[in-house]
Amino acid sequence: MKPGQKFRNALKNNKPLIIPGTINAYSAKLAELANHNSIYLSGSGVAAASYGLPDLGVTTLENVLIDAKRITSATSLPLLVDIDTGWGDFDAISNTIIEMGNANVAAVHIEDQIFDKRCGHRPNKQLVSIDEMQDRLKAALDAKIDDSFFIMARTDALASEGIEKAIERCGKYLDVGADGIFFEAAVSIEEYKEFKNNFSAPLLANITEFGKTPLFTQKELSDVGVDMVLYPLTAFRAMSLSAEKIYNSIIKDGTQEPLLDIMQTREELYEVLDYYNFEKQLDEQFENNNKESS
Description:
By secondary structure, the protein is α/β, with parallel strands linked by helices.
């Protein structure tokens, strides 16, 4: 089954669809073992985790593609990828969609900020016109190499233009064929409800920590019609704090022994990676090579 169809099926069969962020291939395998049905690669996460850079539009298509390919090669879960503003003009957007499709990505979201974008939960965001965003979407939709590939329009209009203008933008984006809406930086549950009062299209709520949006529960969001709940960097933030504590503790305590109870064991790692099966195949290969050479 095509990745896009897997994503659409997951969206249809889960109310709401929970989409955790997976910062790398190993995180994706952990999410799959936890029985998630879809996963996410954050542009901010790529910038921070893979390049040590802030989320200010400094990473490129190639930077994100590297991580996307690693993830899709490690898991069968459909992957939603943050493609920021599409990394350039309409030809660049078309190329982005083609490359994402070739990388077995299932879905993307593209936003209506200007090219020099900012994190969606930071001030001073600037938006392109509705017409320009529609043209971005048309370029993306026309470039799909598989009809099931899911293209979501993200709007950052709420913070600067208010709910009515944000709703207007959503309608215009859906008019040109967007498959769903990523409604960024909502501050009340009523704002999601207002969207669903106007449109039946799939709606994503970004429940990121320490931002503008309160940490609404999945039930609260489902009750107002939200179709997808995104946790873009939840696991990464926990991993990062744990790593910071460990680095400091090793210097302070002179041993890692007090930290063993918060570590994944070697056996647990091997189980996730199917290590022993790989090792068995390697042993068999060595054995066969030795027989052939003798």
